[in-house]
Amino acid sequence: MSEHTSLLSGEKKDDDNGSLRRRSFGSFSRFGPDVETSGVKPSGDSISNIPLVLEGWNRKSMSAQADAIPLNGKKGQSTGQRARARSFVQNIDGTMVSMTPVEMGRHELYEEVPFLAMSGLQRKEHSLSVAFSSYAAQLDTLETDEYMAATTGKHLNPEEKERRLSQMSLLLLDELEVDAITVTTPLIFAVLIASMLMFNMGYNISVMNAPEPFVFPGHSTSAWSMAVAAFCVGGPLGAVLAGQWADQRGRRGALMITTWLFIFGGFVQALAPSLNIVIVGRAIIGVASGASTVLVPIYLGELAPPSLRGVMGTMTQFALVIGILVADLVGFVLANPTGWRYMFFLTSAMAFFQLLLTPFLLESPRWLLGRNANSNKARFIIKKLRGFRYDEEVETEVEHYLGASKSQSRNDSNDNSGGSSAKNPMLEMFQDKKVRLLVISTLVMQVASQFSGINAVFYYSGLFFDGVIENPLVGTTLMGAINVLATYVALLLMDKCGRRTLIMWSSAGMFVSCIVIVVSLNGYFSDMVALGAVASYVCFFEIGLGPIPWLIVAEMFEGKYVAPAMSISCQLNWACNFFVGLFFPYINKSLGAYSFGPFAIVLLLTFMFAWIYLPETQGTTPAELQAEMVKKNAGRSYHNMDIEGMASHAPPSQDEWEQALALLKQLGDDDSDEAAGV
User: Fold this and answer.
1) Nearest alpha carbon to residue 100 among 634, 641, 630
2) What does residue 74 show for φ and ψ, rounded to 5 degrees?
3) pLDDT tens digits for 378-425?
4) Angle at Cα 275 formed by Cα 589 and Cα 352, nearest 5°?
5) What is the model's pLDDT at position 78?
6) How would DSSP label each residue in 98-142?
7) Cα–Cα distance between 373 and 483 in angstroms, integer?
8) In whole angstroms, what is the distance from residue 176 CA to residue 100 CA?
9) DSSP H or E run through 23
10) Pick the residue with more confidence: 557 or 214?
11) Is 507 within 8 Å of 449 (Cβ atoms)?
């Protein structure tokens, strides 16, 4: 390698031992248009000149201990001293932090991506990774340029800068996105078990549809609508209680309480002697479902790395819509005078199966660390979830959790208040003029999501399709299948389109579909056109008014406002859901073919609001996110920003790990032989 090439790659051959080492700088300003280049001088080898304050970061792993064991009378070199590319950040208060560039990137993701598993977050996750990769690559390139100027008297030319910037950015991006394709068995089990709660919720959204004529025949419209709407009475109560359970008993304990509620509610419904008892069972299941909507996103968001939270949210959304579809399919077999009780009993059966799998359900490491930052149990769980082999990796991940929890805490602004009373976060959110439009937009979107009438289709599609097609259950099942496919289409669109754009397309498409439904039911088009319009109506809901109101909270609110915004959104959503479930039978009875007319009016108003007032999601493009990083970290200085060294000086390989274990085994055998000889 020529001297010029080695300098360009950020490496320099040490004349004493021939090893490649990276030089660091005693002072290095962050990248920016006002960067100060004067006075930047090499200060010796990067590892030997680390300040004593950083010694705590040099943790020994198991392999380090193994390497330190004497071999053939000589002590091996400690792995804890092996060369690794360590970047050092000097904060504005003078404190120092040691991390590799990829660890810095993961820390940034932890701080910026909320601890929520939510469908649609993939776009923000990827944009953050791209933004930090470009940001760090610019730091790396600037440092390399300064290093060359200090050692050779020549700066990098524009072509060399562009080439290094591109190479280092892609290299770091690959490293950051490894988490998105690395899934461990414990994490898979956690996702599957938690997703069963959402499946059960989806099942109970649609389970009342098919057996309506056979459940205590002769019931009144008001009694049946109350049985359907009782689900939404329990929902907001469950959402409130879930937060208390999660804080007091842990995420795992709260999930188990929710599972038992599904079991109990299913039994009450299946064994009910009257419709009034069915209403009670339905309310209990509503409590479990409301708790699930809160607990599952939090639990999976706290277990999964930031780059997987969007994927986890997508899986739970699929579990929900598949549950709706399964309830429709089961109706073909059990929706009869003797089988309807078994339909209700399946809720308990599925929850009981989930209960059998709870030994594989891990506690949230974030909850454990929140109670005790030194929790060994949290570290053990992190090691299992991430598949780590080294103690240093686990401790770095713990730092990510603790730093992100502090950053996203809603009380951060009051941490240094000297004991003064903190504002109520909900009240503070409503008083903050900067987020007032976002708050109003969030509330309007939640109302529009439910008053668009989507749950009238899932609760009462049998009633709606009666007279439209020969077997209403066929139409209901078709809508369930289309709902699943539309969820997948929505996933693709959310990665490419703006949130405001999707809301406008969704509300406009649903409005046109409602008009076609009304016109068809009045005889101007065939019944098949009406069926197609309902399918279109469901599809347009899934690409916009279904997921986007929740994404607005996760993507656009500051970390301290996410929890209160999500809480009020959940309560309002359940309240509107209740009114739709309770009053649609009366609307259908009074308006007949015009029953979708009120929904069309709501959708038209939603489109107008989105067009005039709804802000597009800001701060989600890589360029915008990078600008935020520059602003946020303006007071920090970076040392030894070596992306290439990070890749070339990785932790011990699998071969080295196996050699260390073999050495331990060999030493154990030697000790046994000596004991036998004695």
Assistant:
1) 641
2) -120, 145
3) 999 999 998 888 888 898 899 889 988 887 764 444 433 344 445 677
4) 115
5) 34
6) EE-HHHHHHHHHHHHS-S---TTTHHHHHHHHHHHHHHHHHHHHH
7) 43
8) 12
9) strand 23-25
10) 214
11) no
